[in-house]
Each structure stands twice: as C-alpha cells, then as structure tokens.
Amino acid sequence: MTHPLQLEWSGQTDRGRVRKNNEDAFLCLEFDAREVRYLGKHGSASLAHSDFVFAVSDGMGGAAAGEFASRIAVEKITRLLPASYARSATGLAEGAADVLQELFGEIHEALSYLGSCYEECAGMGATLTLCWITPGWLHFGHIGDSRLYYLPGDGAPMRQLTHDHTHVGWLQRTGKINEREAKTHGARNALQKALGAGHQFVDPQTGSVGLEPGDRFLLCTDGLVDGFFDARLAERLASVAPGAAGIAGELVAESVSHAGRDNTTALVVTFPG
Q1: For residue 186, what is the DSSP state?
Q2: Terminal alpha carbon distance of the chain
Q3: 133 in a domain, yes or no?
Q4: What span, in angstroms and rounded, lies between the C-alpha atoms of 74 and 127?
Q5: Number of folded domains in the chain?
Q6: Is residue 181 part of a domain?
Q7: Which helix (H) or strand (E) holds 79?
Q8: Which of these, 81, 151, 169, 178, could form a disulfide with 216 (CB 3.0-4.6 Å)?
Q9: CA atoms within 13 A on the CB side of 177
Q10: What would the pLDDT profile of 128-171 be if each residue is shown by its tens digit?
Q11: Which residues partner with 218 through β-bridges?
C-alpha cells in the first residue's frame, strides 16, 4: 500500500445564532518526540517526519464552565501524546488504543477535580472526538455526541465512525428510529457518556483506520449535525478539492443558516490522491 505523505486540514467554529458564548473548541497539532507545534485553522503538511492530532470538543456546564471544559480537553492533549510518538514509529495500530484510553482518562480526572473543587465549575464536562494521524494510520478516540465521519477515497459510501453516546443515538443505530426522527427527538442531547460532568467512569470508543490517498474525514460537534442530513454532508465532503482551505467555514455557515441553535464546529482533514 502506498501511504499518503501529504494531508490538508480546514477548521472553523461559530457560536451560532442563539448562544451568547462558544463552548466548542477545535485543535490542530503537529508533534514529534521533541516538540509540539500548534497549527493554524487551515493548512497542508507532510507526514514524513511528524504525527498530527485533530480534535473537536463541545463543553457543558454553568456560566463559562463549558467553554473552559472544552479548552482543558484539547490542551491536555499537547502534554500526553508527544511522549507516545515512539510507539507510532512502526506505523502499526497496536498500542494506540491504550494511549488514547490514558489520555481520555486524564482529561476526565482533570475536569472532575475542578468540578468538585469550585462551585462555578460544578457539572462541567465536555465531549471529545480526536484523530491521531501517523504514517498510514488514523487512530481515533471519542466520547459524547460530537462525530467523526469517514469518506473513503475508493468511492465507498461515507460512514460515521463514532457512536453518539446518547439513548437517541442507540435508537438510530439499532434501526428503531430513522435519521429524521433522531433529529427531532426531545432527548437527542441527553448524554450518557462525557468527560467530567459528574460521570464516575470514562469509557471512550477507540478505533483505527488504514489511510489511502483520497480519504476524507470530518470531525464536528452536534451543532453542525443539526443543520445537515448525512447525505448532504457526504455530498459536500465528496466535492472538496485539493487546497480547499475554506471548506470548514462553508460547512459551518451552511449549518448555521439552516439551524444555528447551538455552537457549530467543523474540522475537515483530507489526504489528496
């Protein structure tokens, strides 16, 4: 298999038309065993000498606690993943799940500790959907109802790799309700799993995907999903041309125009063929 050596990314977030503050956050990082480099909201790079992390997080909590929670979630990543760089040097998926389990556990502990110590942080929590990209592989960790979509470069249909950790998400996965019914269900935003937020244990979903030229991925918060059906998202991802730096902004703007009730974040990562 020929591994893609180039990747492109595009990220954007918006508070929407209703919320007064933005509790979403997204992260673009490049790292090796020595240093971590924050990346801009769009760009391109080579996979030859570094790993990359892309993540979205949706915070929750009173006052500004949700905004704080999502930023803790993405910033703690910078302290833990560089130490794991050597594990990915072989290009194998083995061990990535353990690293991501540890990472999610540490973020959960940090949010839980702050929530128990400070009244203004009581109940603070966050979703987190994260991609760790190494040569030939994309490893992902996830908890909550943010999402990771995968559109393979070989023309196969788009798939949602992550599970929404809600009862409504389970109903849709098991075929008891359809996508339209899930979007209008009264309990669609009731999380069964999250980082912090009073949950005693954390059990993230993890997985790995072998990368091929032409593959495209979308990380997004539930606010983006509010404004799209999956078929439209697949159509928009399929239309992304190399160098399309503004694609995340276009997705966010379209979603906000159709919904906009929540903070809205999109992060598109592509591997040009």
Answers
A1: T
A2: 13
A3: yes
A4: 10
A5: 1
A6: no
A7: helix 65-80
A8: 151
A9: 16
A10: 999 999 888 999 999 999 999 999 999 999 999 999 998 888 89
A11: 149, 268
Residue 39 in domain: yes
Return the residue matching tokens 């697949």: 234
Ranges of H-type helices in 179-238: 179-184, 222-226, 230-238
Q: How far apart are CA 156 and CA 33, in angstroms?
A: 35
Residues 6+ apart with CB under 8 A from 235: none
pLDDT at 4: 47
pLDDT in tens, 193-232: 888 888 888 899 999 999 999 999 999 999 999 999 999 9
59 CB-contact burial (10 Å; exposed 0-12 / middle 13-18 / buried 19+): buried
d(CA 81, CA 263): 27
Question: What type of residue is 133?
Answer: I
Give me 251's structure tokens: 């997705």
Length of the chain in residues, anyone? 273
**Nearest to residue 111, comparing CAs of 203, 195, 204?**
195
Say which CATH number the domain at 74 has: 3.60.40.10
DSSP structure class, residue 84:
G
Token pair of 116, please? 């128990």
Q: Mapping DSSP to helix (H, G, I), strand (E, B) and coil, where does residue 52 land?
A: strand
Q: What's the rounded Cα separation, in Å, for the pair 48 and 89?
A: 11
Token readout for 162 is 């992550």
User: Between vectors from CA 145 to CA 266 and to CA 166, what angle results, nearest 5°?
Assistant: 160
Q: Is residue 172 part of a domain?
A: no
Q: Which structure tokens are listed for 76?
A: 């703690």
Q: What is the DSSP letter of 241?
A: P
Which residue has 């702050």 as its token pair? 114
Quote the domain boundaries for residue 68: 6-159+194-270
Q: 97 or 268: whose pLDDT is higher?
A: 268
